[in-house]
Structure formats: structure tokens, C-alpha cells
Amino acid sequence: MAKVKAFINGRICFQGKEWQETIYVNESTGTIMRQPAEMPSDFVDLKGKLLAPAYIELQTNGDATLMQTPSQNSLEEIYGGEAALSAVKMVTLAPELEGCTALTETLSQTHNIVVSLGHSEADYDTGQTALQAGATALTHVFNAMPPLHHRTPGLAGLITSSSAAPYYSLIADGIHLHPATLTLAYRCNPTRCVLITDAVEMAGMPDGVYPGHAQVPHPQRKEGNRVTIEGTETLIGSCCGLDECVRNLAAWSGCGLPAAVRCATENIAGLMGLRDRGVVEEGRRADFVVLDDGGGVLQTWIKGVKVFDRG
């Protein structure tokens, strides 16, 4: 009979709310299970802390020098054939480019790849056409796209779409988006809001100037979470972690920690079609983070095994 681990005396993050519930884990499979008939073999006392799904880091950006034009390059030319294409899970497209509608249909319907709209100058109607063709997401809303305007809402206006509401990613670092803008976007559709980072290689490093590389061939200055090209105000990226983004959204929007956690877990699982993780429910992997009331990560569990403890 499989050993069972029980997480007791905790508050569970589920569907953006707190729930008082004991979570049982099958230690043989590392998955969440229903309450067993027998006494669990191991107990983890959460002491009133929050138990949430482990955060899912969604990568939505690539090297701008490798961008392709849909009408000029085939999928085989871009990705190198079916075997390589099977590893692709998400593609960001600018829907105004020639050939984008047909490519969106092929990627989403034939290859089951998530198509996200971004790095684009497209207007609202062009974005709507892309959603109808199979696109289901927007990449880092308000960044690398025209600003929201009351007469010409652009791609950012699609977050209010009722016919085919897309998921939309936000960078909650206080650099890419003002807290008021973040709050406005989040409140449009909390069940479709996805938190991402724009973290670059200097994350976790001391402030200072770092060398460039192929993607950014200039010295890079890190000041706090902000990274710019040395001697300019040109933003390269951020050093804000996903856990900090969750805390920022909770604080700035007033939505509370469980609702913010949803944007880094359940909503991402929904966007990517993940059925094995991202939600604290029976049959999913027992990948958890234990949080204090401020959203600080106290512990990390992978498949029911503790891999990090802040102590």
C-alpha cells in the first residue's frame, strides 16, 4: 500500500481564494490524492501558513534578431522539421504581418501550439481576427505594442473581449508597468491574467555594469531590478522574480495573495493546457510553495518532496 503524506493545519490557495483543507499526497506517484481510508504515514504541519501550487515560470520572449516573417519562411525553415516543432509550446506573433492569419490557424489547430499576440503595431480589429483564427493570448500587455487609447485601443483593448477572451501576461515589476496600469489590466479579467517576469541574466547579482552579449551588444547597467543600456534610459529587462511579481500584484491591486497566486499558477496552467500541475487538486503533481502572509516563499515541494526550506 502506498505511503501517504498529509499537509495539515494550512490554508490552501484554490481558484483565487483561501480554503481550509487537508491535502493528501501519494508518495509513490508524487500526486495529490483524495482522503485515504488508512491513516497517513507522514504529516506536515503547515502551522497556519498558505499552501499554493508551485509557481510556473512562463517564458514569452526570444531573441529579436531571430524573428521571422510568416509569408517569407515556412515552419520547416524556421524550426527544422516536425521533430523540432513538437518541442515548441508557444509562439508570439505580430498579427498585422502578411501570412499571420494562416500561420495562426496552422500552429493552433494542427500543432496545438499556443499563439500569443505581441511585439506588434496591430490595431484592435486585426487582433480580433487573430483571436478568431486561434490565438489565445497577449504577450506582456502594454509593452512592445501601441499604448491603450480611448479611440484606438489596439491589442491591449482585447483583454476586455467577451467573444474570445484571451489570456494576457503582465510584468508586475513596477518598471514595465505602473502599479495603477497593472491594477487596471488585472481587474479587467482576473481569470485570464498571467504574471510573467522579464528577468535577465543579472537577476540576483549586485548592482553594477555588466558586459553585453549577442542579443544586447552593449554594456548593461543594473540598478535594483532595472537593467538599461549603459549611459542611456533604454530598458533591457528586469531582475524581478516571479514571487516578487505575485507580492506586487497582491499589494498594488488589493486583490489579496490567493488571487495573485492564481495568476502565476492556475491561469498559466489554463493557458498552456497543463493537466498535471498548477492546481491543488486530485491527480495533479504535488508541487507546492508554502507562503507566509506577505507572500514570502518559506518552502518548496516537488512531487511531495521538500526541496527548499528558508528555515
Give an account of the 3D structure.
The protein has eight helices and 19 strands. Helix 5 crosses helix 6. Strands 3-2-7-17-18-19 form a six-stranded mixed sheet. A five-stranded parallel sheet has the order 8-9-10-11-12, with helices on both faces. A four-stranded mixed sheet has the order 5-4-1-6, with no helix packed on it. Helix content is 21%, strand content 25%. The two termini are 32 Å apart. The chain is α/β, with parallel strands linked by helices and 311 residues long.
Provide key terms for this protein.
single chain; six-stranded mixed beta sheet; alpha/beta; globular; five-stranded parallel beta sheet; 8 helices; 21% helix; 311 residues
Instruction: Give the low-pLDDT segments.
Output: none
Order of helical and strand elements: EEEEEEEHHEHEHEEHEEEEEHHHEEE
Physical arrangement of strands within the biggest beta sheet? 3-2-7-17-18-19
The percentage of residues in β strands lies in 15-25%
The backbone outline, from C-alpha atoms, is globular
Intertermini distance? 32 Å
**Helix/strand/pairing class, anyone?**
alpha/beta
**In total, how many beta strands?**
19
Radius of gyration over alpha carbons? 21 Å
Structure annotation, total helices: 8
Averaging pLDDT over every residue, what do you get?
94
Q: Major sheet: size, sense and barrel closure?
A: 6 strands, mixed
The share of residues in helices is 10-25%
Short recap of the structure:
With 311 residues, the chain is α/β, with parallel strands linked by helices. The protein has helices spanning 75-79, 82-85, 100-110, 124-133, 179-188, 242-253, 257-262, 266-272, and strands at 4-8, 11-14, 17-20, 23-26, 31-33, 42-45, 50-53, 90-93, 114-117, 137-138, 167-171, 193-196, 208-210, 220-223, 226-229, 235-238, 288-291, 297-302, 305-309.
